Amino acid sequence: MKKQNMFDILLPLDSEQLNYLKKLESTCSNIQCAWLSGYFWKVANQLSNSPDLQIKQDNLEQTITIISASQTGNAKLLSERLYKYFKKHNKHVSLINALDYKFKKIRNEKILILIISTQGEGEPPEEAFSLYKFIMSKKAPKLSDLHYSIFGLGDTSYNFFCQAGKDFDKRLQELGAKSLLDRYDADIEYENDYIKWSKELLVSINNYTTEKNITVPSFKKEDYSVIPQSHYNKANPATAIILMNQKITGRNSNKDVHHIEIDISNLNINYKPGDALGVWYKNDTNLINKILELLSIPISDKITINNNIVTIFDALKNHFELTNNTKNLVKKYANFTKNTFLNNIISNDIYFHNYIIETPLVKMLYDYPCKMSAEQLINLLRPLTPRLYSISSSQDETNEEIHITVGVVKKIISGYLHLGGASGYLSQSLKVDDKIKIFIESNNHFRLPIEKDIPIIMIGSGTGIAPFRAFMQQRDNDGSKGKNWIFFGNPHFTEDFLYQIEWQQYIKKGLLNKMSLAWSQDQKHKVYIQDKIRENGKEVWSWIQDGAQIYVCGNASKMAKDVEKALLDVISKNAGMNLEDADEFLNNLRLNQRYKRDVY
Length: 600
Ligand SMILES: Cc1cc2nc3c(=O)[nH]c(=O)nc-3n(C[C@H](O)[C@H](O)[C@H](O)COP(=O)(O)OP(=O)(O)OC[C@H]3O[C@@H](n4cnc5c(N)ncnc54)[C@H](O)[C@@H]3O)c2cc1C
Ligand SMILES: Cc1cc2nc3c(=O)[nH]c(=O)nc-3n(C[C@H](O)[C@H](O)[C@H](O)COP(=O)(O)O)c2cc1C
Hints:
This protein is of the alpha/beta class. 42% of the residues lie in helices and 19% in strands.
């Protein structure tokens, strides 16, 4: 066996970097070597104050790395809490977003903690996509020195519950990593699971580090968290005021989309194009009254929430989900009522799945009413969670305002109109001067390029256009020279052309270079944005070659997948690659932050 010399062992470079260095060295004269040494010294000094290097330095000596992989902020909040918890217990820990994690470094990790939600249909959140692809690929290294733990966040009402966490867990095992603690798969009410897991994890880590005699370095400098903290957040929302609430689809449209402007003056809120707005909504009064009536509960009955006594009406107004039916809820209700039909439904997976989709809570109660107490009702329900909306304004343009573009979720079931909880509240209940509870959910993986001359291609259907309005406002304010191309799709040109006048003005100004529109129902055959991408394939490819960044926003289950297929076809056809190579090419674009998606 080749003996490793001391220099190699102490070297802060991995073998790949060392090879590069040796190759470079072999091509350099003495003068060039001397110049390079001075050059790297300068680079090192320039970097020493930058957060980036701080992370790298921490990595060299760190013991625990927490990776946060989140889409709507829950995993991010829990990661921040875990980070603080470990610090309080004197652990040497670093916290990083999955997107910022240099995943090839995973081979150097000793203890890795992953807090990850599941999105789409059993997929990892967008910011963890590249890490996921790398770990699942043949390129993933053996990880026999790694100990890890995973906290999965999900929702039991989805078919692939906590699938992303499960996938990572399985793959890490295959790569030889050892689990410190069994994975937790937590539902929407994750608080108790989180507390239990974090405590058990601390014990496991303590046992492991004592057993292995791993020294935990004491803290020399202020730890650096790559996740910025903000004043207002989900747990501490700001109260803002509605300035405008206007329907922006035509009278004959099947879609009801609202443009909402919110006043944030004096709140000291900052946001960037790409961020989303979190909204704490209130349930509809008629819906609450109907539910209480069907269960024979007086609206003034009292219950206790977080040590406060409130009426059941107030509790349902502000604290519980009433518009989403779930498997758990139906199971609990079937058990409570002993209803034969419901009990039959839950025993058949396919019927059960369809029943949940087709039957809102109030319809189930209408079909099978019963008598229960306020307390019993509360035990059936899930806590209300805020909804996110892509911000459709740039703060440089609108100053103390936030704009959002809300598509109202409407369903007619057995002749009754059912509205989505938050989209119903935003579109129907909120009037000018009303108060609204909000917070900013920052979205660092969906940012405009820093270099202003880089071309961008924006692809979105329906309300997926929202962040691109913010992008264009920003590019306009920045005087960006980079070319801009929008692909937009909706059913009808006359009814559903969201923000039409603004796009026309940008085109006139020369800021918007190209707009490709797909009106799916304006002709016999359906035409979607993916068709427009294929139709313009040669030009799309030419923009990609010119360094364009591609942004996709909107529906995850259908649109984003079809758009990705179209992009793969364009790359494959124009670059003469097979689909597998095209996939690799697109993934490289993703890795280089040139293919960014914000899909829901
Ligand atoms: C990062 C992010 C950005 C988003 N940006 C926007 C945006 O800019 N504009 C926007 O309008 N929405 C956006 N959304 C979606 C938004 O957060 C809500 O999910 C949406 O408004 C529905 O919530 P709701 O409370 O009205 O409906 P819920 O009360 O949650 O749902 C009521 C019923 O409708 C079903 N349902 C929910 N959504 C749909 C749907 N789209 N189609 C059919 N059935 C549905 C539910 O399963 C349920 O049965 C975004 C979501 C994310 C995660
Ligand atoms: C668009 C969307 C799709 C989702 N898909 C799934 C899913 O397939 N499986 C699952 O278990 N949970 C799913 N969830 C639920 C989330 O995982 C859950 O809300 C989680 O707490 C979100 O954590 P995050 O805020 O860190 O992203 C989905 C949520 C959204 C908004």
